[in-house]
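Fold this sequence, please.
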Amino acid sequence: MNDQTWDTTFRELFERCAKLHRDGDTRAANWFTAADKSFLDGIGHTTQEFFDFVDDHCRYGAEGPTLETALLVAAVRRDYFRVVQNGKRSGKIVPPSELPPKPAAVDGIPWLPRLIVKARAKLKGEMDPDTMFGCGGDRAFFEQHKLHPADFLRVTWAAGDDDRKIIEFAKSGKM
């Protein structure tokens, strides 16, 4: 596999896993070959993150993430992993206990403080296996504010430690 085909590999893996899920294999214990795991690791992704997108895609249909959304989110993580982290994981995990509470708000916007922390964790590959960037609560936020999760990740990356830039982006409702 080379850099010109990683998206095709991602798409084929997503479609194969979605078929397994629809056929009743919803635990993903046997979804991934050694080559699949190596591929996901090479783009800074985990099998759990991949499973979460496939699972929500299959369970929630039009309300869940599309394959394209999963691919775009993976592309941002891949870029960050390669450009900022030089292909090396941080070795840290952000536990759910370090996430702001779901009702926490900033500038009157509930969920945003939590989403900022989750976006930074997603970028750095520090998501706890029990936490999903792009979960139902995140999707409701993105829909309400007319934002795409991959755009939110890119803005979070560009903002660095400046929460205000992310907050203003969320308030703008610009895709």
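The radius of gyration is 16 Å. Residues 32 and 116 are 30 Å apart (CA to CA).
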